[in-house]
Amino acid sequence: MGKRSVIPYGPQHPVLPEPVHIDLVIEDERVIEAIPSIGFIHRGLESLVDKRDFNQMTYIAERTCGICSFQHGMGYCEAVEHIMGVEVPDRAKFLRTLWAETSRMHSHLLWLGLLADGFGFENLFYQCWRVREKVLDIQEMTAGGRLIFSVNKIGGVLKDVTDDQFKFILKTMDEVEAELKVIQGTFFEDYSVLSRLKGVGVLTAEQINALGAVGPFARASGVNVDMRKLGYAAYPHIDFEPITSNDGDCYARCYVRLMEIYQSIDIIRQVIAKMPAESDLSVAVKGNPDGEYFMRVEQPRGEAFYYVKGNGTPNLERMRIRTPTFANIPGLCEMLKNTELADIGLLILTIDPCISCTER
Amino acid sequence: MANIKRSPWLLHYDGSSCNGCDIEVLAALTPVYDAERLGVVNTGDPMQADIFLITGGINEQNKEVVKQIYDQMPRPKVVVAVGVCACTGGVFKDCYNILGGADTVIPVDIYVPGCAARPQAIIDGVVQAVGLFQQRLDEHHAQMKKEA
Predict the structure, then answer these.
(1) CB contact, 8 Å: A103 with chain B?
(2) Which of A43, A264, B8, B45 has the smallest CB count inside 10 Å?
(3) Are A327 and A212 within 8 A, CB to CB?
């Protein structure tokens, strides 16, 4: 039995783009226990419901996280729409699905890049981010912003997409698909990549269920959970099956996320093919929300839910966001036990942590 | 830009930003925007960094962390506040946990606006920071010569 020591990891660390602090209890090179402490990015944005009315809160909700910004806005808007009994026009629903999937694509490409950087493959990191820029171009052209584009409003969306833009999107999807096929080979077959990913940080489906993990992290262990199947936005009209893997290791998480990019490409093609004819993009919303609702959406990182409670005044009584990374942290701590110190950075990355969401 | 003699290294720290600006800082370093052609390199070590890019506002918990990172950097140093939250606190200014922009705890030299700040704006901020760094380095050397 070796000597035990505690190594503080973070908050400022080269592998982590965001600050999170983990105390690692080490015995020789092996991790015995991981104790996280969070709160470095806590802003307290949920408390802004006292100062902003429910329409303004859309923009606050969008700034919960810069990566899945659109989906945060969408989740919040759908929750308020349910309370107020607003039926969103079909075209707006399809447009929301389109932007939700482009967000997923750029988030997963971003993660693949960070993963490559995490195991020291800088070239692959740059390749992933080069492809990601094409997806951001779509968002900038259709919605006017690269990351935070605020096209959601309660009752619909603010911007329409023209036929020329749809053609551009389809052309870009073909390009992204072709380039992803090249990148995919390196992730799935390269000897050095496999040696870092295969069999590292294995979690079984039982552990995932017990720890309540969500999203690609859970799907990589064979747990078939995908909130898109609940049928919000235009997902009931889209034909897709959640991607799962049974290995439960880092390679499986990489596989699930990479395959989900192809799935998103497929969903975007379906959305454009089934897009309803031009119509109003939003309906007028009268009055103030009175009542409460739970909205669950599938973000790139997993299930997020929004609890909104209104009391008939412009200011909501409560807004609560439970984000996927928060649900995945117990899984991460379980996974970090009995691993090598050198793998820690990589393992933290494989849950795709979004600390900004988690701490709000 | 013609007078650049050194290759300053960048350090990025996420104060309490929403991730948007952090990701744009990274995007500014990747091939499409390629801030590295200006001679800057991204580093994770405060001890080796010359330019400090901070995103997001200051809150109670990261106050000490930001101060510590700033103190660990060797002189001369330049601080760039990226994004409107790092400049003033942005949309989160009224949140109970936000004390304000980065300049509430450390001196900020260059402010890059935007929500999220665009890579072009970040590169512009970095170019100015590189110029300012060179100027401060020259002053620092002149001071050292005088003392010797």
Answers:
(1) no
(2) B45
(3) yes
Chain B interface, best mutation among A16, A21, A41, by max B CB count within 10 A: A41
List per-residue pLDDT tens for chain A, 360 residues long. Answer: 567 888 887 777 766 667 778 888 888 778 887 787 777 888 888 888 888 888 888 888 888 888 888 888 888 998 998 888 888 888 888 999 999 999 999 999 989 988 888 888 888 888 888 899 899 989 888 988 888 888 888 888 888 888 888 999 999 999 999 999 988 888 888 888 888 888 888 888 888 889 888 888 888 888 888 888 888 888 888 888 888 888 888 889 889 999 999 999 999 999 999 888 878 888 888 888 888 888 888 888 888 888 988 888 888 888 888 888 888 888 888 888 778 877 787 888 888 888 888 887
Q: Spell out the residues 6+ positions from residue A210 whose beta carbon is closer than 8 angstroms to its own.
A: none
Q: How far apart are the first and last CA of chain B?
A: 30
Q: Is B116 on the interface with A (CB under 8 A)?
A: yes
Residue B18 touches chain A, beta carbons under 8 Å: yes
- Residue among B22, B32, B96 minimizing CB distance to A44: B96
Number of H helices, E strands in chain A: 12, 8
Q: Terminus-to-terminus CA distance in chain A, angstroms?
A: 41
Which residue in chain A has the smallest CA separation from B69? Answer: A12
Q: What is the CATH number of domain B9-147?
A: 3.40.50.12280
What kind and span of H or E run contains B87?
helix B84-87
* Partner-chain residue, chosen from A44, A59, A66, that has the shortest CB–CB distance to B95: A44
A38 touching B (Cβ < 8 Å)? no
User: Where along chain A do its domains lie?
Assistant: 52-354
Check A18 against B13: CB less than 8 A apart: no
State whether B92 and A43 contact (CB < 8 Å). yes
CB of A65 less than 8 A from some CB of B: yes
Chain B residues with beta carbon closer than 8 angstroms to that of A59: 91
Nearest by CB to residue A67, choosing from B19, B92, B118, is B19
Q: What angle do CA B4, B68, B43 make, to 5 degrees?
A: 40
Helices marked H in chain A — which ranges?
A: 57-62, 69-84, 90-118, 122-143, 163-189, 191-197, 205-211, 215-219, 250-274, 324-336, 344-350, 355-359
Residue A144 touches chain B, beta carbons under 8 Å: no
Task: Enumerate the domain spans of chain B.
Answer: 9-147
